[in-house]
Automatic annotation (TrEMBL):
Coiled coil: none
Protein name: LacI family DNA-binding transcriptional regulator
GO molecular function: DNA-binding transcription factor activity; transcription cis-regulatory region binding
Domain HTH lacI-type: 4-60
Amino acid sequence: MARTTSADVARASGVSRTTVSYVLNGRRDASISEVTRERVVETARRLGYAPSAAARALRTGRSDLVLCVLPDWPIGPVVDALLEDLTEELAARGMALLAHHGRDRRPLADLWRAVDVRAVVGLTAFAPEDEAAMRRAGIQVLTTAAAEGGGRAPFAGDQVRAGRLQAEHLAGTGRRALGYAYPADRRVVAFADQRLAGVRAACAELDLPAPVVREVALETTSAAAAVRGWRSAGDAVTGVAAYNDEVALAVLAGVREEGLRVPDDVAVVGVDDVPLARLAAPPLTTVAQSVDRQVAHLVAQLVAGIDDGDADHGPSAAPSDLLELVVRESA
């Protein structure tokens, strides 16, 4: 079906295309009667006319597209929720989200030059040459890359603190020998290493042995092998901090496979508070990351930079209280 154009609206309204343009663009400096304005608006609505993004960009001098560059990460519940919330927040401000997955190895410049974006958001740091080129082009650039030596990104929660919260809670329930369930997916090692660093730091401060690290794939066999390793350690592990909720769910399966009980024999804590966490058997204790607040902060940064007309408007630090321990039966 052919796309409705402004010429179609003009013909159906009995006016010129210039008049249609003035009415639909809200121009009040032209002598057009209210009756004519109402007729044009009603005709455009009836025909389903919508100006193209390219036309809007040419008319206003700016695009309404925001490009979100996703690294080569698994698209799990947290990233999915982030994209959904970001889409809604931007839509409320008259902007649209375009997501680009990092598995596409073409140069990033090929994309942002082709689609004429207003802002680019990266969930990891951009290559310096890419970021410099985008800023020279007047594109607002935000990245969630953590500050040098820090565990928190401009709108992501403090991943080191997430690990600390896990270890501190397990220790608070009387668990003295802790294990860490490390993910088998190499794409998420940056997050896993930060969370493990938090677990290790908390153990050192609480005078506990260093956590026993075991890799856990998302399958019962792998998880059961990890549980056997933890239980055969010098001090049998009685509390496990898992990289995230998916790995924690695998650990629960591994504990059951070994004929043990949660939390009686082994307590388990995850990260993310995905919907399945509360449906686990037993329901999973976890560290929730406030995705909605993270996205609200990110959008505020984008809007501030765009409104200022400053492509170098940098992101401020995220709120410090984005993480919350959610205690359920698994620990």
